[in-house]
Structure formats: structure tokens, C-alpha cells
Design a protein that fits this description.
This protein is α+β, with helices and mostly antiparallel strands. It has helices at residues 187-196, 216-219, 233-244, 265-271, 296-302, 305-313, 325-348, 358-367, and strands at residues 48-54, 59-64, 69-74, 80-84, 90-95, 101-105, 110-114, 120-124, 126-127, 130-131, 138-140, 146-150, 171-175, 203-206, 224-227, 248-251, 276-281, 353-357, 390-392, 395-397, 405-406, 409-410. 19% of the residues lie in helices and 22% in strands.
Length: 429
């Protein structure tokens, strides 16, 4: 399929007012320009959608979805050309507050941003550990947040993506323009669950609009959970009060995330001298990918683990390690670092900060490859499950036995799993 280059004047109306413009309500008349007409900017597109205007460059982009490309119409020449191909069957296009292209991609089931240097940043491709359906339309609000719809059009057949089963209900999602600095990974909750199992009082703090129902029963064991908006002055003071009484802070903000809130490392130490400060993110705290969002599966793709899985299983697609292996491994490394820092602080009063990432854990795994187990794991049976029944907001449950013990100390949690935002923002003692 070729694109015919047509100047705007070639298919504009030759008469004014343009008969193609029909006024159904007389109240519209004051807003009509007498010599404005409907113009055909180009042809050869199978299905055009998602137009976005780049006034600073004097060009228009739109998605030609089945042809798997984004096309560009140039105002200065009237020509139509290919802007990006393949486009991952992009649909809706828009611009963010910094003028960068935002694209909803059906094939990859994600929302992306094109940076000034042409690189692609993934803004969203899943929710609650499940893949999005096929992001369709997007808009950027004045506060910088990106809102997008997620119907199932792109996975209902092979016309505008790959046919697949939906993992999530159709919904509208929001990528926060301010707290978007948060990189949500399971590693932090795994670490603090471990610490709670050995007697630590853990208070988890989330923003008011954060929900992860698929993970709450698993990672909130033994914790209390509250909600605060750190951009709100009152909540900010509450957080600083909580921080002043904490021994350890584990946070999953990307590089400079807390800095932008006026809570950089020095400020945190002023609020709580001697604070053990542990941060973790997806791709590390330095280098060109330091500010990228990411989670377990994406990091496995980026570090070659999924490619190794594809080769080993003779699959035609990348194969990730199961059970969010990077998240859980990094979580236990975070917990180990906290325990070590507490011991060293007790010995000589040292103040420590630690920075961990999923990418560094991936590197450790890649550099220390083991021999794959030949025998399959046996099925779970009653011997793997604790006898005690846990009373949770989701009903009674029995858990798998804890995975570790420290000497003679066994993991035991003082309270069952709870829901986010179920506790007041205060320490219990």
C-alpha cells in the first residue's frame, strides 16, 4: 500500500461556503468562517485515527492502524509521508505538557512517550501485574497526567494487533503527572513483609488513588497501611512526623522522585538523624535508564533473561522467569541490607544508605547461572501449608510456610494481611 502525496488545495472545495459543512443548529453560525472548507489532506490510508497537531513543526501525525504505521502530513509542502513504521498498530496519539508524542499501541498493549532524542519510554503496559488490553485513546490533562482508555479492540482479532484473551476489564486509567516518579515493584513490599515477620513494626504509606487488590493478600501480611498525599501540606507534615519516629525507610521512588518533593536524602536525615535509608528501582540509580519506569518482566526482557528463556525452551517468544523472580530476590536483598545496617548502627553508630535495583539483581543472576533442575517440582500438599487459619478481609485462609528462618528465630506475623488505607497515619507505640 502506497501513500499518494496530495496537496491540500487539490481536494478542497471550489465554492464558498463549502457545501460539505452543514449547520444543524443556527447558534453555530457565529463560529463559522465563511471561507473555511473541508480539505482532504491525503489518501492511501486504510484506517486513519488519532490525529495530533505539532504546531511548532507545522505537521500533523495520525495512525494508519491496519497498515501498522504513523503518517505525517507537512503543512509547508502538503506532502504525506511515513513518520514511523512499524508503529505497533498505534491508535490514539496526543502530546504531553512538554510537547512529546504520546501513543497508544495495540500490538504491544502499552502507552509510550517519544523522547526528544527519539527513544521510547513506556508509560504503562500493565495494572495489578496483568497486561493492559489495547490502549486506544489518550489525553494529557493540565496537571501533566495522562488519561487513556483500554478497550479490547486490539486483541479481539489480528486486524489491528494480535488476538489474545483480555487479562483486565475494560477501563480508563490515569498515569499521574506528578507522582508518576513512583516505580511500583514488588521488591519493597516483599522486603518489609520479611522484616515484619521478625518483629518490625511496618507502616506502609500510599497515595489516595493507589490500589493493587491482586497483591494485597500476599504482601501486606503483618503490616499497617495508611494513605498520604505528600504534595498536600497537612499530609506532608504528617509524613515528616512519622519519618521522625522511624528507624528505617524503604522506598520505591525513582531517582530524584523524593527530591522533587523536597525530601531528598539530606532532608530525610535532618528529619530523622541516623535513619537507615534504602531505595530501590527498576533500572538502577545512574546511567541513561535511571529515570525509566519498569517492573520485573520488563527488566528480564532488557537484561537478556527472557531471551535466554526463549532459547532454552525453544519458544518463538521471550520467556521470563516465573513468580516475579527479580522482585522477590531483590526484596530479600533489601531485607538483608536493612538487618545488616541495623546491626552495624548498633555496633558503631554508623548511618547507612543503600540503593538496589531489579537490573542489578538480574546482573547477579546472569553472572551466576546455575544448573537448571531436571526433575519437576512436586505439587503443593498439606505439608507446605501452615495449620493456623488466618482471618483476612477476604475470608479465612491458610498460608504457605515462611521461606526462611534466622537461626532459631522463625518468621511470625502479629496480624493478618489487610487492605490499603485501613490504618491511621501513626505509629502504634
Amino acid at each position: 500500500m502506497t501513500i499518494t502525496e496530495i496537496s491540500a488545495g487539490d481536494c478542497a472545495s471550489l465554492r464558498y461556503p463549502d457545501p460539505a459543512i452543514e449547520i444543524l443548529d443556527p447558534s453555530f453560525l457565529p463560529y463559522r468562517l465563511f471561507n473555511a472548507s473541508v480539505e482532504c489532506l491525503g489518501s492511501g490510508l486504510r484506517w486513519a485515527e488519532g490525529p495530533v497537531w505539532f504546531g511548532d513543526g507545522r505537521y500533523l501525525l495520525c495512525s494508519d492502524i491496519p497498515n501498522n504505521r504513523i503518517v505525517r502530513w507537512d503543512e509547508t509542502t502538503g506532502g504525506l509521508s511515513v513518520f514511523r513504521q512499524p508503529s505497533n498498530h498505534s491508535n490514539g496519539l496526543t502530546r504531553d505538557r512538554q510537547g512529546r508524542l504520546i501513543a497508544c499501541e495495540h500490538l504491544t498493549r502499552r502507552v509510550t512517550r517519544t523522547e526528544y532524542d527519539g527513544s521510547i519510554t513506556v508509560l504503562a503496559d500493565g495494572f495489578d501485574g496483568k497486561r493492559l488490553n489495547s490502549p486506544n485513546d489518550a489525553v494529557c490533562k493540565s496537571d501533566g497526567s495522562i488519561w487513556f482508555s483500554d478497550p479490547a479492540f486490539g486483541i479481539s482479532g489480528d486486524w489491528e494487533g494480535d488476538k489474545a484473551e483480555a487479562e483486565l476489564p475494560q477501563a480508563v486509567y490515569r498515569v499521574d503527572g506528578q507522582s508518576g516518579n513512583l516505580t511500583r515493584v514488588i521488591a519493597g513490599p516483599v522486603a518489609t513483609r520479611f522484616l515484619a515477620g521478625f518483629g518490625a513494626e511496618v507502616l506502609r504509606v500510599d497515595p489516595s488513588d493507589w490500589h493493587e487488590p491482586a497483591l494485597e493478600p500476599e504482601v501486606l501480611l503483618g503490616k499497617r497501611c495508611t494513605r498520604l498525599e505528600l504534595r498536600d501540606d497537612r499530609d506532608r507534615r504528617t509524613f515528616e512526623r512519622l519519618l521522625s519516629g522511624a528507624d528505617v525507610l524503604v522506598h520505591g521512588y525513582r531517582r530524584r522522585g523524593l527530591d522533587g518533593l523536597g525530601l531528598d536524602a539530606d532532608a530525610r536525615q535532618r528529619i530523622r538523624p541516623g535513619l537507615i535509608d534504602v531505595s530501590l528501582d527498576a533500572y538502577g540509580h545512574s546511567g541513561p535508564w535511571a529515570d525509566r519506569r519498569g517492573f520485573d518482566s520488563l527488566v528480564q526482557f532488557a537484561t537478556g533473561i527472557a531471551a535466554a528463556g526463549m532459547e532454552r525452551t525453544s519458544s518463538s517468544t521471550p520467556v521470563s522467569l516465573p513468580v516475579q523472580a527479580l522482585d522477590h530476590a531483590t526484596g530479600y536483598l533489601v531485607a538483608a541490607e536493612v538487618v545488616g545496617a541495623i546491626r552495624r548502627a548498633a555496633d558503631d553508630g554508623r548511618t547507612e544508605r543503600a540503593r538496589l535495583s531489579l537490573a542489578r539483581t538480574a546482573r547477579l543472576l546472569v553472572d551466576h547461572r546455575g544448573t537448571p533442575a531436571v526433575e519437576p517440582l512436586r505439587p503443593v500438599d498439606d505439608a507446605d501449608v501452615a495449620v493456623a487459619v488466618e482471618r483476612t478481609p477476604w475470608g479465612p485462609a491458610r498460608r504457605l510456610w515462611p521461606p526462611v528462618r534466622l537461626g532459631s528465630a522463625e518468621m511470625a506475623w502479629p496480624s493478618p494481611a489487610t487492605t490499603l488505607g485501613s490504618s491511621a497515619p501513626e505509629w502504634s507505640a
